[in-house]
Amino acid sequence: MTDAELALKLAETAGQLLITLRQSGLVDGKALGAAGDAVAHQFLVQALAHQRPDDGVLSEEGARDPARLAKSRVWIVDPLDGTREYSEARPDWAVHVALAIDGVAAIGAVAQPDLGVAYCTDAAELGPCPGALKILVSRTRPPQEAERAAKALGAELVGMGSAGAKTMAVVRGEAHAYVHSGGQYEWDSCAPVAVAQAAGLHVSRLDGSPLIYNCEDPYLPDLVVCRKELSADLLAALR
């Protein structure tokens, strides 16, 4: 099984585990979110230990293992991105599974189980995006930079949950860009960035610099994903 095939299989399987847990009705609310994080995390780290025992792993829900810093290949996973949305039975949550190689988001898969779709670097295709300019932002914490850029470019801001859900919406062509600032970690963006790059989108930090993964401090607070023809104007408007 290739790395891309493994990433996709892991993301899809973890997503189905999360659907089954929610449908059981045994827990709900915040307890459901916590249980979902734990179930998906345990599955992913155990499966990776079996399938890729020599690689490093960084999971949102796991203890930080400094040994990963010496490894070229590190799996970076978010077992449940959009815990609140998952608990509220909204569709805008996702499972992220990525492989960073020498600090680059090289392989990734993003599953959106409530939509019945999953995306992978091996088969990423960019959809058309007609209509007025739309920029996706956090539905609870829209960044000021995005508000400023939207005003400058005459764009509409649209709130959505998970970082993976927002990035895949740009891949599908439902919006032209996704802008975030004010707090994210490597697991929030690594898999979505890998898929977005494979689909031909621009990805960077707000200042246009590259996103670097498997750092000692996994804090990676800002992100721009957009269609390449928009990137110069959008980055200028964000400054």
Describe the structure.
The protein is of the alpha/beta class. It has two domains: 3-121, Fructose-1,6-Bisphosphatase, Chain A, domain 1 (2-Layer Sandwich), CATH 3.30.540; 134-238, D-Maltodextrin-Binding Protein, domain 2 (3-Layer(aba) Sandwich), CATH 3.40.190.80. It is 40% helix and 23% strand. The protein has seven helices and ten strands. The protein has helices at 3-24, 29-51, 83-87, 144-153, 163-172, 186-199, 228-238, and strands at 56-59, 73-81, 94-101, 104-112, 117-120, 134-138, 156-160, 177-180, 202-204, 223-226. The strands form two sheets. The chain has a five-stranded mixed beta sheet. A hairpin with a 4-residue loop joins β4 and β5 (117-120). α1 (3-24) packs antiparallel against α2 and α4 crosses α7. 46% of the residues are buried. The model has no long low-confidence stretch (mean pLDDT 96). GO terms for molecular function: 3'(2'),5'-bisphosphate nucleotidase activity. It catalyses: adenosine 3',5'-bisphosphate + H2O = AMP + phosphate. It comes from Phenylobacterium conjunctum. It holds the Pfam family Inositol_P. Keywords: Hydrolase, Magnesium, Metal-binding.
List the helices and strands in order: HHEEHEEEEHEHEHEEH
How many domains? The number is 2
Q: Provide the CATH topology of the largest domain.
A: Fructose-1,6-Bisphosphatase, Chain A, domain 1
The fraction of residues assigned to DSSP E strands is 15-25%
Specify the structural class.
alpha/beta
**Overall outline:** globular
* CATH class annotation of the largest domain: Alpha Beta
What is the overall number of helices?
7
DSSP, total strands: 10
The biggest beta sheet, please? 5 strands, mixed
Distance between the termini: 43 Å
Question: Compute the gyration radius: what is it?
Answer: 17 Å
CATH H-level superfamily title of the largest domain: Fructose-1,6-Bisphosphatase, subunit A, domain 1
Strand order of the largest sheet: 1-2-3-4-5
What is the CATH architecture assignment of the largest domain?
A: 2-Layer Sandwich
User: If you average the pLDDT, what whole number results?
Assistant: 96
Helix content, binned percent? 25-40%
The unreliable regions are none
Catalytic activity: adenosine 3',5'-bisphosphate + H2O = AMP + phosphate
Keywords: Hydrolase, Magnesium, Metal-binding
InterPro entries: CysQ/Inositol_MonoPase (IPR050725), Inositol_monoP_metal-BS (IPR020583), Inositol_monophosphatase-like (IPR000760)
GO molecular function: 3'(2'),5'-bisphosphate nucleotidase activity
